[in-house]
């Protein structure tokens, strides 16, 4: 591939797609107290078991600018690089990547390195990386592809439905009293990635089945025709649940391609077990 695509551990790429597209992944980190793991060194099931046995929620963190500098420098000097990583709105990774790029450009100013704020993660990154690879195959050059991807970022919709509120409560993202009431009333949260790339609540729904119906129905708020579109979905240790929802999506929308993948440990610290995330490009 004449352009090197890069991402990070929040992309949750299926292994076959990662290998096919020859994507380089820069690891993010998961911390349990004094223990630190890279996103690739810890599987999601083990992470969920550790969360269940622990009194505190793990946290994720980004690599420093030097790690990005090293990753960029390791690529051939004449090969343009495009990094599509986790949203600036939820991680310092984007700013660290820009700093690493600038460090290398001071040494090698003729390098072509684009660091794009995707305003998404997980299936949103799968969607954008898949789109990038398709356009490279069509013959897009570096500048043309960067412009195209920046436009696609503005059209990327990322929606979440959570089965449990435990991670939000234990992580301090949801008040314990409000969380306890919501759990008692069987309230499920439907969330989305905002225009700034932050995760925000769209709707509170009582009951899991109703929440999943609303989750599927929301797609129609953004698209009128899915025939030429790709949908990516990731799930947190809930393949059967994900496949059931995908069947509902297929019955209602005619996406040309659907990509399903597991949530990795970095994103699992936020979604909790059973969480589902989908991404697709909205109509212009």
TrEMBL record:
Coiled-coil regions, chain positions: none
One Pfam family named in its UniProt record: DegV
InterPro entries in the record: DegV (IPR003797), DegV_C (IPR043168), DegV_domain_contain (IPR050270)
Domain of life according to the entry: Bacteria
Gene3D superfamilies: 3.30.1180.10, 3.40.50.10170
GO MF annotations in UniProt: lipid binding
Protein keywords: Lipid-binding
PANTHER family: DEGV DOMAIN-CONTAINING PROTEIN DR_1986-RELATED, FATTY ACID-BINDING PROTEIN TM_1468
Name this polypeptide is given: DegV family protein with EDD domain
């Amino acid at each position: 591939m004449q352009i090197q695509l890069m991402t990070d551990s929040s992309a949750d790429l299926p292994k076959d797609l990662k290998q096919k597209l020859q994507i380089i992944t820069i690891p993010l980190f998961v911390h349990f107290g004094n223990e630190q793991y890279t996103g690739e060194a810890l599987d999601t099931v083990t992470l969920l078991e550790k969360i269940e046995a622990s009194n505190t929620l793990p946290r994720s963190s980004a690599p420093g600018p030097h790690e990005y500098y090293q990753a960029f420098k390791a690529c051939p000097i004449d090969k343009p690089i495009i990094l599509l990583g986790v949203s600036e709105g939820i991680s310092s990774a984007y700013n660290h990547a820009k700093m690493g790029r600038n460090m290398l450009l001071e040494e090698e100013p003729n390098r072509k390195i684009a660091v794009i704020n995707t305003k998404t993660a997980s299936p949103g990154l799968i969607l954008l990386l898949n789109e990038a690879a398709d356009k490279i195959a069509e013959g897009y050059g570096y500048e043309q592809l960067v412009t195209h991807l920046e436009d696609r970022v503005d059209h990327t919709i990322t929606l979440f439905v959570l089965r449990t509120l435990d991670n939000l409560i234990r992580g301090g993202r949801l008040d314990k009293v409000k969380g306890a009431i919501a759990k008692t009333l069987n309230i499920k949260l439907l969330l989305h990635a905002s225009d700034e790339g932050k995760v925000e609540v769209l709707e509170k729904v009582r009951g899991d089945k109703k929440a999943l119906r609303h989750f599927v129905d929301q797609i129609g708020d953004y698209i009128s025709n899915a025939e030429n579109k790709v949908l990516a979905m990731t799930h947190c240790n809930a393949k059967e649940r994900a496949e059931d929802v995908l069947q509902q999506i297929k019955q209602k929308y005619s996406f040309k391609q659907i990509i399903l993948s597991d949530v990795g440990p970095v994103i699992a610290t936020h979604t909790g077990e059973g969480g589902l995330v989908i991404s697709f490009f909205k109509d212009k």
